[in-house]
Amino acid sequence: MRAPDEGKRGLEEMAGYLLWNAEVEEARRKASSFAANLPWLTTSQRDDVERVYVADRVAASRAILERNRDRAVELRGEYSTRYEDLKRRCVAAVLGAVAVAVGVGAGLVLFTR
Predict the structure, then answer these.
(1) Nearest to 57, CA basis, from 38, 19, 30
(2) Residue ranges of the domains in the chain?
(3) CA atoms within 13 A on the CB side of 80
(4) Nearest 5°: phi and psi at 41?
(5) Residue 17 pLDDT
(6) Backbone conformation region of residue 73, classed left if phi is above 0, alpha if psi is from -120 to 50, else beta
(7) Which of 77, 78, 83, 27 is nearest to 57 (CA)?
(8) pLDDT for position 6
(9) pLDDT of the chain, 113 residues: tens digit per residue
(10) How many CA atoms lie within 13 Å of 40's alpha carbon, on the beta-carbon side?
(11) What integer pLDDT is reported at residue 64 of this predicted model?
């Protein structure tokens, strides 16, 4: 069973890699578009503006992803706790219902004799 888990993890890593590269490429496109609106810039100034824009956008994207990751971990913990609590209550309810059914059945057997 280890190979399918590793394959799944590999695919998830590849998807993450492709998504991140798409984000960086989008930042480059936006930077180029932004710099194009500043026609008075020299070529080196335009390159600097694009580089700073891309760096800023990538940093912002990374921060957003890290916040989402942290929140996902937090939610996973909360939901796991809730699930375990719900599972315990369901098992207790089923055991209680079985105990009541056994008690009623035993009572009927005793009273019908």
Answers:
(1) 30
(2) 2-85
(3) 6
(4) -70, 145
(5) 92
(6) alpha
(7) 27
(8) 87
(9) 567 788 889 998 999 999 999 999 999 999 999 999 999 999 999 999 999 999 999 999 999 999 999 999 999 999 999 999 999 999 999 999 999 999 999 988 888 87
(10) 0
(11) 95
> Could you give the CA distance from residue 77 to residue 39 in angstroms, rounded to a whole number?
52
CA-to-CA distance for 85 and 89, rounded, in angstroms? 6
pTM (whole model) above 0.85: no
From CA 28, how far away is CA 21, in angstroms rounded?
Answer: 11
9-17 contacts, C-beta under 8 A, 24 or more apart: none
CA 62, chain centre distance (Å): 15
DSSP 8-32: HHHHHHHHHHHHHHHHHHHHHHHHH
Ranges of H-type helices in the chain: 2-36, 43-111
